[in-house]
Structure formats: structure tokens, C-alpha cells
Amino acid sequence: MSKDTVTLTDNRSGKQIELPIHDPTLGPSCIDIRSLYRELGYFTYDPGFLSTASCRSAITFIDGEKGILMYRGYPIEQLAEFSTYPEVCYLLLYGELPTRGQLDEFMGIIREHTMLHEALRNFYSGFRHDAHPMAIMVGIVGALSAFYHDSTNVHDPRQREISAYRMIAKMPTIAAWSYKYSIGQPFIYPRNDLSYTENFLHMMFGVPSEDYHPDPLHVRALDLIFILHADHEQNASTSTVRLTGSSEANPFAAIAAGIASLWGPAHGGANEAVIRMLEEITATGDVKPFIERAKDKNDSFRLMGFGHRVYKNYDPRARIIRKMCHEVLAELDDNNEHRALFEVALELERIALEDPYFIERKLYPNVDFYSGIILRALGIPMNMFTVIFALARTVGWISHWNEMMQDPESRIGRPRQLYVGSQPRDYQPIDLRGD
Ligand code: CMC
To answer: What distance in Å separates the CA atoms of residue 230 and residue 223, rounded to the nearest whole number?
Structure first.
């Protein structure tokens, strides 16, 4: 901690207080305002946490101005090029890249947990046939706490670790089964001789009557999407997991809350919204009206997949995914519908990045802008896009939850408010309230 302080003068009372400054290893320093209410009787007001660090964390670093993203200090570009999703999971959970032996042991444990308790199958048939897979995810993940009681003691580090293994291992099975249920196909059980990502594709697209062999480029593309979505510091869903877990709720319940938060179109739901938008643009054949609508303050339409709370520069994940789009789509015919969509996306990006509205507001493509194009080309239906985001983000959520549970400064999350409601008033019997 630095010895520097910020002096705050209350011009109403003339009182002055010194607030300590905490220096990070990277990024802006933080003013510690914990004594503010006690000393001056004020709360701070920061809707949407524009200037508020809610915790200490050593997992992920983002420099939004420069477009930098690092997991445990490793640049995302290097992880995207050289690593695999299981290795990234280990890195996020334990803080270091694994040795070969550590990775083999880790994956051995993950494989032991890939199946679901058989009774969980029954939960799927309770959903309507056309339920959104994200609704199923929230339900099934929340229900895990009813099955795995031996890993819900949040104060036991070993139980926390087992719950992390379970969640990372079971999420592909839960996700793939939510898809199988929606199309009326039999559930496909995990195969532990396959890699993490191959196994997910096997459970998504395999059928009992035929062998299924995923295209190696598709496996690599999906693994890359998993890596790029694995963590993103204190975003809405991760903060939701932390807030839920801060009451000592069990980890399955906390992750179910994170999945619910991710679902919104301003967060993980954007990848689905992007494709709907690109399809609409492709159908009309003209990008410009959509740009004009996005700029019109009287129209609620936004360019989906554009803009970010933290990135005021190109989202580094979008750049990596855009490159992978070229690779995946190069395999397809020239007149392919996936290519047509990608070309519309490139055109939209080109026009937006030359437009003063987007330049002034520093609005660039984010991770969701191009990810849906790859997922669609892999044959993954649109309503599964956010599910895939949730699958990949699970390791980030659980790493943050675990970090919070070990942090001696953690307390139950309990924000205060700027109350703007009624002054005190007396209850009136209903007959005296008029018509
Ligand atoms: N299209 C048009 N205008 C936009 C957009 C957009 N996509 N995004 C922001 N703006 C404008 C906004 O109207 C505002 O303009 P003004 O200053 O004139 O009022 C300005 O840019 C700042 O926007 P904001 O809403 O205050 O920014 P925020 O940090 O609260 O919101 C965001 C960030 C990601 C929710 C927002 O940019 C957005 O809605 N983008 C579209 C949805 C999207 O792609 N979400 C995925 C985010 S990345 C992955 C993830 O988190 O899951």
C-alpha cells in the first residue's frame, strides 16, 4: 500500500479527512473510501460502478484505453495462439501455467466429473420443448446444489476446489443436453477419450446411430472462443457471482446467478443479437440505415457487438476472433451465407469506424461482434451462443468466487443508495383515500 493519501474537504462542515491510496501492480490507483461514511456521514454515488473497484483481484487485467487483456499476466494474444482451454482453466484457477504432469493430472480429474447425476436428466423434461437453452442452464446449474452436497461447504478449500472441478467438467454436458432437448434428440454422454472441446462438439452433434468426428479446425476455433471468453475481470456476471457468493451461498447457486446475468443483450446475450442484426442487414442489403438508427437518440437501436464499458479501443478479443473468422470461412464456398454475413460485418465495422459518432465515443467492435459468425458457421444454433459464452466463462466465475472466499477483506456485498423516495408519512385507512 502506498503512503500517499487524498485529502477530502467537506465544504459544508469544513471537516477534512485523509483517504489512503492503494497502488495496484498495473492500472489506476484506488482511493480507499471505507472510512468515508464513518468520518463524514456520506455515501459515494456511482451507478454502474464507473469509478469503483469492488474488490482486489489477481486474476485478469484489462487496459481499456490501450486494448490490453491479460490472464494472470499473460497477454491474451499469446494464450490464443499457443495455449488450450484446459491450460487456461488451470492458469485462471491456480495462477500459474501447468507443467505437463500438472495438466494431465488436472484433466484426469476433470474427466472424472463430466457425467451428470442420472436424476438430473429428469429436470430437462420439465422444461417446455421450446425453452431457451439459457433458461435451462440457469435451472440445471442451480439444481446442482441439490445433488452435490459434499462440495457446498464454502469454508472448506478442498470442497471449493471440487466444486470448481465439477462445474468446469459438467458445464459442457449441461449445455449440450440443453440443445439436444430443444431438438428432441437423445442425450449424448461424455466421452473421456476426447479433448474438452472435442467432447463438447461430440455431445452437441453426435447421435447414437452414427460416429461423429469433429473437423479439427472447428475444434481449434471453438477452443479459441472458449479461451477468449474464459474471464474478463469484474464484468456484470462475475460481479453477480461475487455478490451472490458474498452471502456464503453455495457455488452452484452463485454460478447460476452469473448465468442469469450473462443472458442479457447488453452482456453475453449480445452475440445472439449481433447475428439477428447482421441477418436483418443482409436481408435489406444496406448497412447505412442501421448506422443512422444507431446514432439516433430517439431510437433505442444500438449496433450490437459494438462498444464496451472498459475498452475505449479495439477489443483485443474481437481482433483475434476476426482472424479466426477468415480461417473458418476460407473452407466454405464463395457464395456461402456465412461468408455473406461476415462481409456485412466487415462493412459495418469499416463504416462505423470512419463515422464521427463512433470515433468520438470510442465505440469499437467487441468480442461478441465476430464470435457468432464462427459459431454459426460451426452449425451451432443462435440460441446456444450465450450458452457457449457461459460454458467458457464458468472457470472465470469460479476463480473469482474462490479468490473472494480466500480474501480476508471480503464482506457481504451490501451497497447503499441515494434515497429519492417519499418523506415519512402516516398510513391512511383505505376508506379515507378517496376514489
Ligand atoms: N451503438 C450505438 N451507440 C452506442 C453503442 C452502440 N452499440 N454503445 C454505446 N453507444 C453510445 C451511447 O448511446 C452513449 O452515447 P451518448 O454519450 O451520446 O449518450 C455512449 O455511446 C456511451 O454508451 P453507454 O451506454 O454510456 O456505455 P456503457 O459503458 O454504459 O455500455 C455497452 C457499454 C457494452 C452496454 C454498450 O456499448 C452497448 O449497449 N453495446 C451493445 C451491446 C453489446 O455489444 N454488448 C456486449 C458487450 S462485450 C461482451 C460482454 O460484456 O458480454
So the answer is: 10
